[in-house]
């Protein structure tokens, strides 16, 4: 399964609806996770190979929603559209759904299912200002729901309210019981867009420390015949940290992060690829090419196209 399919599949919708919240209109149409071949990457962390490919793309792309669908701007400033423009039939379906939610809100303005349904539908239609207003109301009704706050963060990001986006992501992280990579990535991107790379670095260093503590606990559990696994791949966090350093102009710190990744996970292609990208961005084409060769050697088959895309001049 190629990278674009994964990116399209994982990026079609802005939120996941909890099953217990299904009411009058039934479940919102959120995509199920993609199943893929499992590969152990790092201590006690199993993720799908395809998911690892997607995550790398998510870290190294600046995502924008547009009338063309999900748009990825790569470090080489190429723009790639993932997803399709809404057809007239799809727009009509969304408008009809929105009218149903609005009918409910006209009589029950605080109905949480209708608020979220209308907010998500408006976001899918690209009407982010109205979506943000409804999601703010929903957050008032459900202040401890991390999914609501995360969705609000996503919508505020689309409105280029990066400070508001970061604030919503922080609240979502506080409300979440477990570390969540999607939240971490959203908060990092919001802080970087708000020109606060040092804050992004601090968030990621704190996440790294928390992951290290969890890893220690997992090792102890394994010694006691436990079967726990880390829920966030530490390589994902390190890739984000390198990006935050790079965006803040701390290239040597970013390279040091990637060097440590390569040392700790010598058979994982992502450290080599990330280092190759930053060398390429800084004009060190020979060094970049050597990293890309190693990345392609270690990359699984469905990731080789990703390596090729980033390595081309």
How are the SSEs placed, and which strands pair?
Blueprint: H1 3-11, E1 38-40, E2 46-48, H2 49-59, E3 62-66, E4 69-73, E5 79-82, H3 88-107, H4 112-124, H5 128-141, H6 146-158, H7 162-175, H8 181-193, H9 197-223, H10 234-247, H11 251-264, H12 269-281, H13 285-298, H14 304-311
Antiparallel strand pairs: 1-2, 3-4, 4-5
Helix pairs in contact: 1-2, 2-10, 3-4, 4-5, 5-6, 6-7, 6-8, 7-8, 8-9, 8-10, 9-10, 10-11, 10-12, 11-12, 12-13, 13-14
What share of residues is helical? Answer: 55-70%
Average pLDDT figure: 77
Strand content bin: 5-15%
SS elements, strand count: 5
Radius of gyration over C-alpha positions, nearest whole angstrom: 20 Å
Distance N terminus to C terminus?
25 Å
Number of individual domains: 1
Query: What ranges have pLDDT less than 50 throughout 5 or more consecutive residues?
Result: 1-54, 62-84
Series of H and E elements: HEEHEEEHHHHHHHHHHHH
**Count the helices. How many?**
14
CATH architecture: Alpha Horseshoe
Please name the CATH topology. Answer: Serine Threonine Protein Phosphatase 5, Tetratricopeptide repeat
> Can you say what the CATH homologous superfamily is?
Tetratricopeptide repeat domain
Helix/strand-derived class?
Answer: mainly alpha
Side by side, the strands of the main sheet go: 3-4-5
Report the major sheet: 3 strands, antiparallel
According to CATH, what is the class? Answer: Mainly Alpha
Short description:
The protein has 313 residues and is mainly α. The chain has 14 helices and five strands. The protein is elongated, with a radius of gyration of 20 Å.
